[in-house]
Amino acid sequence: MFVGTIAAALPARADDSPLNSRAVIARAKTWTKHKVPYNQSAWKNGYRTDCSGFVAMAWDIPVNVVTWQVPLVAKRISKSQLEPGDVLLNTQRDRHVVMFEKWVNKKHTAYWVLEQTGQNSVEGTIRRKMPYPYRIDGSLYKPYRYVGMSRFFKSVPKGDRQMVAGYKAVPSVLKHKPTPVKAEPKRVVRKPAATKHAQQPTKLEPTGTARPERHDSATSSAPQAAMLTSLLGWLIGR
Fold first, then answer.
1. What is the pLDDT of residues 160-204, one digit of tens each?
2. CATH number at residue 123
């Protein structure tokens, strides 16, 4: 799945060729100077403020690659080939990427590292001495050098290529087409079959109309009482 995002808020360069080492380190130190807080959900100058976002910013590339995508924009090199602005990458356990500035000693057993780290004790963008290749899980860190974006964009699914084709002219946040959700089939509710003794629906009277009271002549005793009273009156009168 393609998850890189085009860097927003930064002017696009005429091409995506690598900057020279001095320019890369200068860009990296704009973050170490202010010790930008580490946050995978935050952005600064159009780049995520995590380890891979920091590297993408320093390399001045138009896409916020994530750690496992770094090999799509960089090539593997040897320890002896390391130059300022190259990186040491761990794509396995605790994925992380740091930037190489220069060697601390002639034996090349330690170097100055520029990195965006989420460690509680040194959280943020820092510059510090680091044993080569890294102080934790050192064997998992391999040196890489940025080479360009062509291989990265070849890895983008065809459906997304049109959206990233003009990244040099219009740097913006890459939007992904959501996967269409299939609508659930409508459930057909069958009405129960009518029976011979089905109850007839009650007719509603119009609103505001008083319904006249009805009396059943077969059960009412009012007419019979009136007739007896009239007959008694006629007999007494005689």
1. 544 444 343 333 333 333 334 454 555 655 666 655 555 555 454
2. 3.90.1720.10
